[in-house]
Amino acid sequence: MKETARKTMAALIVLAGIAIFLAVACSPGADKPKDEAAGPAPVTLIPEDQVRMSNDPGKTELFRDAGLGLFIHWGPNSQLGTEISWPLNNASDDYVKRYYALAETFNPTAFDAAAWARLAKLAGIEYVCFTAKHHDGYAMFDTAYNDFKITKSPYGKDIAAAVAEAFRKENILVGFYYSPGDFRYQFETGLRFKHLYEPDFAAAAPFGPRKLGFADYERGQVEELLTKYGDVFMIWFDGACEPLKKRSWQVKQDVFIGRGEIPTPEQEIPGKADDRAWESCMTTSWQWAYQPNADVRTASEVIDNLIHIRARGGNMLLNIGPRPDGTIAPADEALLRELGLWMSLYGEGVRGVRPWAVTNEGGVWLTTRRSDGTVYAFVDLTYGLDGVKSPAGARFTLKSVKAGPNTQVSVLSQAGGVEWSQDKTGLHVTVDRTHTVQLIGTPAALAKAKGDKAPSLTWGPDWPVVVKITGAEAVAVK
Prior knowledge:
By secondary structure, the protein is of the alpha/beta class. The protein has twelve helices and 20 strands. The termini are far apart.
């Protein structure tokens, strides 16, 4: 009897254990990771009445010192080489579905965030702005507020996290682009008539796994970007963003907000100097996202743009669109390497600088490091200056610059090759290229002066050099 009772009791215990297991296994959310089932962890917010609704002054100066950023537009659309998001504007429902179906095949198996970051570092990039979510609503990060995301793709991994970690390891400031406009929300909640770019923060239709209205859905994603990815320097809102700006500063009071708080012209450079934070956004080609067979700008054009922007007090945010497999297009890579060569030689003239008394004197552009009175002059070289005396050189006079008793004049990264004098008409400088950097085809004018009968090589590259003038004073130019 006792043995039978013991066996019966053991059987009941086993059955009870099975019942408990089945109850847990079949409960809602049991197939989800613990943190996903429970939802995002609560974020401590600064009370609204204690939030400063402006950029932190220290972060603003850090941004202005950086000078050169890398913009990265990327998403499932890269598989077809379309512009990102904008094909949804005025599209039929059938096309919208085909565009969104690209997420099902997006699998960038060659993506290497560390390789991106190393190339950016080589190019002289100081900060990155990566598209966490564009207007199409696709999240390149692991969000709890939307299932339309990279971690639900065949690739399955959090790309934004990899970018943030890799660029931070290279001491490049990390920033995220975030579009307040969200066409996915509009399409799935029946607000199809709304414009692609316009956010409707009053929209109450529930959306996503958490069934939230539009404003709460986007506030939640902004909180994720500012709390899950380490030290985020910048967030960049492409569109109306007042509720999101406030939430950003409630989460992280010193986060720097780019577009939404500072001027950010696209594909243009303002005509006058503006001694405050601003940023000119320029593509390497003409499309923000990857475009096959793109017409990529020359290094000379990009360098000239950078010089003109820095002389006027702004930053240049240079955009690339990675290919669908996660690699950077060869033409973009080549451009970044060329930019890196120039930056390795002359980057001092565009980092940590501000506008000089004048932006330029003729073709000579100017910046200054105000802490010690250093002036940088960006000068195009003429090949065959004085006939065949030197392969490249320049003569110029600066009326806005007055040398002091301790002034020195030199070419960045070059030993010698500079003569100068000061008189009442200005600072007179003669530069010869003596630094052997890169071989290029001999320019026609120099070849003719030398009497070359066949193509030959000379020292390049054919880009502006930077003349450094220390201990200088500004002179009013009439």
